[in-house]
Amino acid sequence: MRFKGEIVFSAGRPGALDLWILNLDSSLLQRLTTGPFDCYSPKWSPDGTKIAYVSTESGSPEIQLINADGSNSVQLTDSGKFHASPDWSPDGSWVYYTSNDSGSMGLWRISVASGDKELLFDGDYAPVEITVHPSGDTIVYSADRNGKLIISSFNLTSRDHSVLIDNSFDNYAPAFSPDGVLIAFLSTREPEDQTKESGSCHIWIMKDDGTQQCCLTSDSGQDRYVAWSPDGTALVYCTSSPGTTRERLRVLDLLQSDATTLKFSRTALFQDLEQESDMRSGLLDSLGLGREGLKRMLYDDSYFGTERDPHWKL
Questions:
Q1: Is residue 278 part of a domain?
Q2: What residue spans of 50-184 are helical by DSSP H?
Q3: Dist CA 307 CA 193 (whole Å)
Q4: Residue 41 within any structural domain of the chain
Q5: CATH at 204
Q6: 3-state DSSP call for residue 211?
């Protein structure tokens, strides 16, 4: 594989998702968090020394920071409300995120140094997921409009909003390319030459003004959690096959138009799952039933571990 760098992602069983780092050069895994709570939506800081993420350790989804070696986890927000989709300012001084702190969903930012918070907008715009332009002057976000997810942009200087995509499909999870020229996003829209499949979701790209929309993936199933490689020549995302909810990390090489599931030893991930207490497994054992076979038949695939929220740095 020609790709280099490190991908931070969350993995595990829902309710106990942990943060992991995959080194693409060595294919080795490093675990950052552990506990009976969820850690997800990790984002590398611009200098690569810290990671912003969401944690439910306090009982509600709060924004936290952790060093790249897994040390010094610090909780940034503490309102007890809902917080999601953290992303950094280019200079690393602010973390942007969405929250219902004001009573409705809005776009916020918090100073990493002081902890001071600022509400940028809320109300009718109701942002869900965000991405910060590499220049730091624009935030692109998804929002619910009449039951469908659209994608809009917000200029931090003029405070103006511009709709980029608003059609009859769900469009969400925008991600700026490293040069800020393109935006990758997810959509339930099918390529024009394909028949719509129920529940499918694909990766699309467009220019930063919403023009030249192009579908990049067309396989059956769900593509989710898209992010760019640091050089802008590839996308990392998670995908699941039809009939399964178990997602795996995958890389789309934009130069070769080729997608490959990342191959690395998942032994540590599986061992972590086995170490978690499971009353259902104990019940199957007490009944003298075939434990693993029945578990595979009776449990949702995500019980056996899912990978999500990748973010890539050199």
A1: no
A2: none
A3: 30
A4: yes
A5: 2.120.10.30
A6: coil
Rounded CA gap, 217 and 223, in Å? 8
pLDDT in tens, the chain (314 residues): 579 999 999 999 889 999 999 999 999 999 999 999 999 999 999 999 999 999 999 999 999 999 999 999 999 999 999 999 999 999 999 999 999 999 999 999 999 999 999 999 998 889 999 999 999 999 999 999 989 999 999 999 999 999 999 999 999 999 999 999 999 999 999 877 555 555 689 999 999 999 999 999 987 778 999 999 999 999 999 998 665 557 899 999 999 999 999 999 988 887 766 665 454 455 545 554 444 444 445 444 544 568 999 999 99
**230 belongs to a structural domain:** yes
Query: Which stretches does DSSP call E strand in 89-201?
Result: 94-99, 106-111, 117-121, 127-132, 138-145, 148-155, 161-165, 171-176, 182-187
Give pairs for 268-276: CB < 8 Å, separation 24+.
Answer: 268/20, 268/29, 268/31, 269/11, 269/12, 269/20, 269/29, 269/305, 269/307, 270/305, 272/12, 272/18, 272/31, 272/34, 273/12, 273/13, 273/304, 273/305, 276/13, 276/16, 276/36
What domain range is 40 assigned to?
6-273+297-313
* Nearest to 154, CA basis, from 189, 119, 184: 119
Asked whether residue 290 is assigned to any structural domain, the reply reads no
Q: How many CB atoms lie within 10 A of CB 312?
A: 24
Tell me how far apart the alpha carbons of residues 107 and 200 are, in angstroms, rounded to a whole number.
Answer: 29
Number of structural domains the chain divides into: 1
Distance, CA of 112 to CA of 109 (rounded, Å): 9
Closest listed residue to residue 35, CA positions, set 200, 229, 216, 272? 272
